[in-house]
Design goal:
- The chain is mainly α.
- The chain has helices at residues 4-23, 28-49, 51-79, 95-98, 100-114, 120-134, 138-164, 178-196, 199-210.
């Protein structure tokens, strides 16, 4: 109980600062890095809620975040070329049509990170926010939802560039590393699995959480 107000304040500051800093970024790696700060704030909401539901939500969120964030960085690495190309958002103009697989994968991970259904990110935030509401932290939950809505703006920006902007130049032929391609496929499947069929893994998270109480 003594730590609850501290975690409450840390969650609000972390979410807000992370999202506002991410909005200002033009470098996609920096955008993802600052957005991870915001996700740490959502995890702090689960700590504020505490209890079996809060801890289960935290474990589920960590697993979902691992898939969608690693997947997003895998796309960035696949596109990155010498001389630091494909690091800025405008470098992604038209890439959704030139590299359809990478475009669809990036769109999926951006949707998931922003918390849109039916992705892993939506279910993860749903469980965390639900646990907070059950414990009576309505204001904190509302602040979390507002921050999540703010994040939609900068997560959708890469998608806008990929599908609604013309390509800046002809793209070189893509050579996929087999390990990178495997990582992309696994993170895509994990993001969809956790979003569409969450019950089994949520059950494991709840069983783990119950063991601590």
């Amino acid at each position: 109980d003594n730590w609850t107000p501290i975690f409450w304040g840390m969650a609000v500051v972390t979410m807000t600062v992370g999202n506002l800093a991410a909005i200002a970024q033009q470098n996609i790696k920096r955008m993802l890095a600052y957005s991870s700060i915001a996700h740490a704030g959502y995890l702090l909401i689960a700590l504020v809620a505490a209890g079996p539901a809060g801890l289960a939500g935290l474990l589920y969120y960590l697993l979902a975040y691992a898939f969608m964030n690693l997947g997003a960085f895998a796309v960035v690495v696949a596109l990155e070329q010498r001389e630091e190309r494909y690091l800025h958002l405008d470098d992604y103009s038209g890439l959704g049509f030139r590299y359809p697989l990478l475009g669809v994968a990036m769109a999926l991970f951006m949707f998931s990170l922003s918390g849109l259904p039916p992705t892993a990110g939506f279910m993860a935030k749903f469980y965390v926010f639900s646990a907070a509401v059950e414990q009576g932290y309505i204001i904190l939950t509302v602040i979390g939802v507002i921050n999540s809505l703010i994040s939609i703006y900068y997560y959708l920006r890469p998608i806008v560039f990929m599908y609604m902007e013309e390509a800046k130049a002809d793209a070189p032929r893509m050579q996929f590393d087999p390990f990178l391609l495997t990582a992309l496929v696994l993170t895509i499947l994990g993001t969809l699995q956790l979003g569409l069929f969450p019950s089994r893994l949520l059950g494991l998270a709840q069983a783990a959480a119950q063991g601590l109480f």
